[in-house]
């Protein structure tokens, strides 16, 4: 790895200190009195209960046990003008928020145009987060 690549990777790691150390499931968060997660920088992030309830309404049955929160919106150097969401249930939730969900097209990963970010963040401000990825 060149020195420039090393510097870039360290800078991206610094930019991602706001990400949670562990991502609990939606059902775990709903069971907590004050739902929150510890972040990589040592601080805490708390979720709005109303937003968690909204997410519960978007998923089916046991998907609450598998949906990891916060949902990570990946900003990548590879896909300019797009962001990526990974995970079947996570993609399903984002598609439902955007009004694009089709039961016939369940995907494990999806690219979305970046202009949709404000719409998603407006609907899910505490249960989504950005991750910066160098590919």
Can you summarize this structure?
By secondary structure, the protein is an alpha+beta fold. The protein contains five helices and six strands; from the N terminus they run ααββαββαβαβ. It has one domain.
List keywords for this structure.
135 residues, alpha+beta, four-stranded mixed beta sheet, 5 helices, 6 strands, 35% helix, globular, UPF0216, UPF0216 protein FH039_01450
What does this structure look like?
The chain is α+β, with helices and mostly antiparallel strands and 135 residues long. The protein has one domain (3-133). It is 35% helix and 21% strand. The chain has 5 helices and 6 strands. A 4-stranded mixed sheet has the order 5-4-3-6. It has a two-stranded antiparallel ribbon with strand order 1-2. Strand 3 and strand 4 form a beta hairpin. The mean pLDDT is 93. InterPro entries: UPF0216 (IPR002746). This is UPF0216 protein FH039_01450. Pfam families: DUF61 (PF01886). It comes from Thermococcus indicus. Belongs to the UPF0216 family.
Q: Please report which band the strand proportion falls in: under 5%, 5-15%, 15-25%, 25-35%, 35-45% or over 45%.
A: 15-25%
Q: How many individual β-strands?
A: 6
Sequence of strands across the biggest β-sheet: 5-4-3-6
Spans of at least 5 consecutive residues whose pLDDT stays below 50 are: none
Overall average residue pLDDT: 93
Shape: globular
Classify the helix fraction into a percent range. 25-40%
What is the CA-CA span between the terminal residues? 14 Å
Order of helices and strands: HHEEHEEHEHE
Report on the biggest sheet.
4 strands, mixed
In DSSP terms, counting alpha (H) and pi (I) runs of 4 or more, how many helices? 5
Instruction: Count up the domains.
Output: 1
